[in-house]
Every structure is written in structure tokens, then in C-alpha cells.
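Our preliminary data section would be incomplete without showing what the modeling component actually yields. Below, a chain of 310 amino acids is followed by its predicted structure, encoded as C-alpha cells that our downstream tools consume directly.
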Amino acid sequence: MARDNNRYTLTRWQRLRVGILYGMCRFVAILPRWVRYYLLEELIYFVLRYVMRYRRGVILTNLRNSFPTKSEKELKAIAKRYYNYLAEQFINTLSVTGASPKRMKQYLTFPDAEKYREAVKDTDVILMGGHYGSWEYFTAVALYDPDHVIMSIYHPLHSCVIDDLFKRMRCLENTVLVPRDESLRYFLKNRGGDKRLAMGLIADQNPFFHRDVHWFKFLNQDTIFAEGGEQLARKLSLPVWFGGMRRRRRGEYEMYMEQLYDGREPVEEHEITERYVRRMEQAIEECPELWLWSHRRWKYKPSDQQKREA
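Predicted structure:
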């Protein structure tokens, strides 16, 4: 297993806390499937929807703004299914703890793995996914593509204990976890090694800084997207692939890859990101409950000039 270098030193008490939390997560992960997905998941769903009413206003507002032609009844039905999906994501996150490659391949199948592997075998590549399907499974593509080391880009959490816990839970064979602020430096430094690099980006989240960003029309709303992936692809002539998922049943998903840019064709500025935005939007419209509606995605608003530019 590969892990990024420690960015901090944990105290003995903090290491103990991480170990206890990891053990609890591992305990859930080894429970029978019916216990995890038909008892615990239903309990979490009930708490989220009826007890906490978790971000109900945010969810419904996002849905109303994104699908203005849908009736209130349709939107509430999507919201109900979303709570089911959100509860499932809690279980999915715990289920990957200490999971073997064989178990991970049960959670995430990749029917076109050989076709994808053949297409990218001689080059570094940028993979752009989103908060759609089970994004915690996204790095499992490394199990189907041993020719590449998957760079899983993440944003460090404020709590060093929880941050270290999530790094232990997410680290799979043939992957390396790289903090967002260090990703470009790591990529450039480690190119040309024994294996090619695949930079994995969850590209639909809010940019943390208004740098290398652009406004796009996404789900009927002006939305800001980071363009670091596009800029790196254009500068180094790297292919860009969209990574999507389809849900098969509780806790099990199927991955598909679609090329957005081949690394050679002439493209206008913002065009690669535009292709990603349109493909992400298409996936959401096909099965809206599989996207992260409880996220405050539209907390930034563009100026009049930015609207005209978009």
C-alpha cells in the first residue's frame, strides 16, 4: 500500500483514538451484508430523514432550482430516494475499511477495464469523477489498471485524527493519497517512473480558492468549477477521461469510463471542463438521487460580468 507522507505527527493518545475508530469501522465492514445494508442502512435512513431531517431545506432548494419543470411531488420523491442513497453511502464508506482487492471488485465492477487499460497504457492520464454513485469506490479503478498509480486527490480535514482515519480507510493497493495543495508538485515530480500516473479528481465540488476557475451553466444554475485538471491536460497533452458509475444494487456499483479529450486535438479554453460539466449533468439527470444534493454547491454567486463570460 502506498500512502502520502505524514503532514503532521500524531501524539500517542491521538494514535490510540485513530486505532479505536479504525477498529470500529473494521467491525462494521466485516458484518454480514444483510446486517450492513438492510438493518444499519435502514436505521441510518430513518434517523437522517425523520429524526435529524438532515439538510432537508438545502436538498429541496437544490432540487427545485435544478429541475424547475418537475412537480413538487416528483422532487419530494427524489429527495426520499436521496436519503436512502445517503444512508447507503455511510455504509459504503465503512465497508471499504480493510477490504481486500477481491472484495473491492465485488463492490465496484468495471466491465470495460481491458478496453480502458489498452487506451491509456502508454500515457499519464487525468480521471474526472464526481460526487455521484459511490465516490469512495472511485480509487478502486487501480485494481483494474495495474499499469498506473492512481493519485487520489483529497482535501485534508481539520481534525488530524479523523484525517488520518480516513486516509487509512481509503488507501488501496496501487494508490497514493495526495493533498490537494500538493497534487501538481507531486504529479510533475513523479512522472516518468516505473508506472504511469493517473490523477483522480472529484471535480464537481466547490473550489476552495477562486483561482483557476470558471463559471458554467450546470443544472440550470450558474456554477463555479475549478479548471486545474484542464490546464494540466492542455499543458502536458494528457488525455482526460470521465469516470461514472451505475448502481447495481445496495453497496454495489458498475464503473464506466468515457474519454473527454485525447491529449492531441485542438480545443478552446474551458472546452474540456465544459465537456466534463455536460457529461456530469447528463448522469445526474438520468438518476438524480445518486448525486450529493445535501451539499451547498451554489453558495457562490457570479457577478454580472462573470455571467456574461460564462
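Residues 180 and 192 are 21 Å apart (CA to CA). Residues 1-6 have pLDDT under 50 and may be disordered. Preliminary results of this kind motivate Aim 1 of the renewal.
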